Amino acid sequence: MDCPRFDRPSTFQAIGLERADENATLKHGRAPRHCPYRFALPVAMTAVDKPSITTARPQTTSELPRDWDAIIIGSGIGGLVTATQLAAKGAKVLVLERYLIPGGSAGYFDREGYRFDVGASMIFGFGQQGTTNLLTRALAAVGQTLETIPDPVQIHYHLPNNLEVKVHRDYNRFLQELGDRFPHERQGIRQFYDECWTIFNCLNAMELLSLEELRYLMRVFFQNPLACLGLVKYLPQNVGAIARRYISDPELLKFIDIECYCWSVVPADLTPAINAGMVFSDRHYGGINYPKGGVGQIAQKLVDGLESHGGRIQYKARVTQIITENDRAVGVKLATGETLRAKRVISNATRWDTFGKLLDRAQPLDEDRWQERYQKSPSFLSLHMGVRADALPAGIECHHILVDDWARMEAAYGTVFVSIPTLLDPDLAPPDHHILHVFTPCWIADWQDLSPEEYAAQKETKAKELRDRLAPIVPNLEAALDYIEIGTPRTHRRFLGRIDGSYGPIPARRLPGLLTMPFNRTAVKHLYCVGDSTFPGQGLNAVAFSGFACAHRVAADLGLA
Ligand SMILES: Cc1cc2nc3c(=O)[nH]c(=O)nc-3n(C[C@H](O)[C@H](O)[C@H](O)COP(=O)(O)OP(=O)(O)OC[C@H]3O[C@@H](n4cnc5c(N)ncnc54)[C@H](O)[C@@H]3O)c2cc1C
After folding, report:
1. Ligand 1: does its nearest atom lie under 6 Å from the Cβ of 348?
2. Which residue would you say has higher pLDDT here, 331 or 213?
3. 331 lines ligand 1 (CB under 6 A)
4. Residue 48 has pLDDT above 90, yes or no
5. Which end of the chain is more exposed for a tag (fewer CB within 10 A), N or C?
């Protein structure tokens, strides 16, 4: 059977991607057993063939009105929450997305009966109570709901020295089992996690909006003075110092490190306490809940809500420049050469992309300072696999993390992440099959300067090494493998539009908690940032928080709040 090839340059032009690095367009290199050299099916093909969003919209940007209250560059969850919040307040909003579907790192793609999540699949923020359930709230604000499936175990850790830990949704069961493994630390374990609850309870007692808006700050302070003072106390703290207050066993402290690393990509000493308070508590409060139909549903529902409230989204619309006049952002230029104007411009691209590539003038000094404090995290090598159901042992959990050697936890290819979302939503795969998304951090430098043949060979080699490491949880994987696509940091860079394919910013050194993470306003008037390079950082619920805050600030500036 012939290997399919595509006229890559014209396909990429059609979907508005840059041509500078075509070799990186192998988003998901499919390598069926009978075909040794297979080029990737561009993810675009699926979306073009089977559009998932049916709402009528202009096909070209030339049909769009030229003037807007707010233009949002990018339809990641941060961008979409900003857009929907603003539209709900009556603003005239346009989202410009370079790709074919919304969601960015929370997108999806379809292949041969499988629906794969591009990235995120362990979803916080879908609870039904409190104020920290920001995904539920963002959808509700524009009249949308999403069926979700509760995950009884957040993560099953497989760690050195046969340390097997399950983080149960039930808080006491989790503490009981961890305490059984570290009986001499039972009390310290509870004290540590209870302190995280203190942080969470403060957050969960207040409406989460822009900390840059004075009237709001005064209002929440008078409504919840104790919660506010609690948060002020924890804002400059990191998790490591809090953990060492209660825990001294070195192996248990390593466990706290991986508890942080698996979402912050840094160990406890560099992980802000506020974020840990959210993650370590919400998993037992609102819980981890998987959206029925896949993670891509979140972005699609937000788009439906945006459009039903008069907002617009345009795909295949790559912004190449943020235009400024008299030191203010006034609009954007597209890859087509067209320009659109807005009272406010909001970038959902990373800060490095926003200020390094899009802004039509020198990077502000504030950003130089930010880049001294924060560096790009690694990207990932990702395997998206379809496997026969008989490969999975009975009772296996949805999310796993494997570390063979603590000394390599932070190293490239050190920690392995596994998601099997079909355990929660079987409809994402053909009958009697499952999806396995396996990924491990690595740097783009490992994947640069390779010929197409070297690149393809390295993908195959690294993918096999990664599959071999799954033996403890899926022993018969090779025999049961039905489908595989491989994504590299170059894939993430190209298709997610993220510099170096980075997962997001991480501290370059130990910083005072979240104190130095920027909010949404920038040094350029009328230009805002939203998403994971703003407060409070990575993760869908976190970027939703950033979206609420950004929309609140912009609405106040537009006189809509
Ligand atoms: C492999 C992986 C696994 C993850 N797992 C989880 C998880 O389990 N749980 C969790 O909560 N989080 C997880 N995350 C993190 C989470 O997905 C991200 O933090 C979050 O989705 C980032 O959202 P964002 O709004 O910052 O923007 P992004 O998702 O980065 O979206 C930005 C959008 O802007 C568009 N764009 C960029 N530049 C331009 C331009 N010039 N013109 C037009 N459009 C542009 C991009 O195409 C993209 O659609 C994971 C991430 C990855 C990569």
Report:
1. yes
2. 331
3. no
4. no
5. N
